[in-house]
Specification:
alpha+beta, Transferase(Phosphotransferase), domain 1, 3 domains, 5-stranded antiparallel beta sheet, 24% strand, protein serine/threonine kinase activity, Protein kinase domain-containing protein, transferase, Ser/Thr_kinase_AS, ATP binding
Length: 348
């Protein structure tokens, strides 16, 4: 006779703690005995649900519902007396945040990663869900170097008006409307997507520098931060690195509009605009040290670069190690202007 309800056991060893998600959930890298596989387990205390058992597996259900090549899949979900466990694949390459903390992305990489995680976000929206926590930490990079959306702990189903209310909102990703309303549309996620793009364009260090400016010896200056978010002063929309094309700047600024109605209407609109970006700026690799800033790209076996020291003196060259490099004299200047630099990056 088949039992209508069965309980089964899982067995795993915790290898290491790899982070926290939200205030209370913990994330571990584990070895699952039955699958003989390395996975990630997210552990959430049942006490967080205030006795509401119907919410125990809400995040796991959302993950399962949102199955898509650019959404992190759920392997299984289970419970013990005190915790809910959600098992996910282990992404050895880590998160998008890990990448943008270590180096600057090329424009081509920004577009590719963005179109990938935005495809996952579009799938989420098509299922009547709002993610509410889209950020580089929650975009994971697969072994095939593709970007997938993860962490659905704050995701909510929309009502008949297309609105939903998250349980909490984190400071760094807060859209302006979140400071004045209780329910939100998918424009909330589009703002956060714009914020991800901004961080990809300008680097995590720059974004953290802007955010940390609100932290003083007295603590976090919440009132000033709120004022700047609502006025559109945070993040600084007028700052972009010189190689960021004008088209991409406009896309980011539109996604970050203070008024939700002025943002992209759908994620597909945002993807289409990103896909239309082309030009010579796509492959510049930017880096900076304590003494100079440098842009470099390789094409047809030749390297083109320009470097600028702290005084503004520039040196531009093109060539390779075999045949040597020739100076591009019109851009070797004692004090190159921003306009001249942007023209070099656009024309070469």
């Amino acid at each position: 006779m088949i039992k209508p309800y069965n309980r089964a056991e899982v067995a795993f060893d915790i290898l290491e703690e790899i982070g926290f998600e939200g205030k209370n959930s913990q994330v571990y890298r584990i070895h699952d005995h039955h699958l003989d596989a390395e996975l990630v387990i997210k552990r959430v205390p049942k006490a967080d649900f205030n006795g509401n058992q119907s919410q125990f597996f809400s995040e796991a259900k959302v993950l399962y519902l949102s199955s898509h090549p650019n959404v992190v899949p759920v392997n299984y979900a289970c419970e013990d007396n005190d915790y809910i466990y959600i098992a996910l694949p282990f992404f050895q390459n880590g998160s998008l945040k890990k990448i943008i903390q270590s180096r600057m992305l090329t424009i081509r990489e920004i577009i590719r990663y963005a179109c990938q995680f935005l495809s996952g976000l579009h799938n989420i929206h098509s299922k009547g869900l709002i993610h509410f926590d889209l950020k580089p930490d929650n975009i994971l990079i697969s072994k095939n170097n593709e970007a997938l959306v993860s962490d659905f702990g704050l995701a909510k189903h929309t009502n008949h008006l297309g609105l939903a209310q998250p349980d909490q909102i984190y400071n760094k990703q807060v859209p302006p409307e979140a400071l004045a309303a209780a329910q939100f549309s998918s424009a909330f996620d589009i703002f956060q997507a714009g914020l991800c793009l901004y961080r990809m364009c300008n680097g995590e260090h720059n974004f953290e520098q802007q955010f940390n400016a609100y932290i003083s010896h007295q603590g976090f200056e919440q009132a000033r931060f709120i004022q700047d978010v609502q006025s559109g002063a945070f993040p600084n929309r007028s700052f972009f690195l010189e190689h960021i094309p004008e088209k991409l700047r406009k896309i980011v600024k539109k996604a970050l509009k203070v008024d939700p109605d002025e943002r992209f209407t759908t994620v597909i609109d945002l993807i289409n605009e990103l896909s239309a970006i082309d030009g010579n700026e796509l492959d510049w690799q930017y880096c900076e040290t304590g003494t100079e800033r440098r842009w470099q790209k390789e094409e047809d076996g030749k390297v083109t670069f320009i470097k600028i020291d702290q005084t503004g003196r520039s040196e531009a060259k093109k060539g390779n190690d075999c045949n040597g490099y020739r100076r591009i004299t019109s851009y070797c200047k004692s004090n190159i202007s921003d306009r001249e630099l942007r023209r070099f990056l656009k024309d070469n």
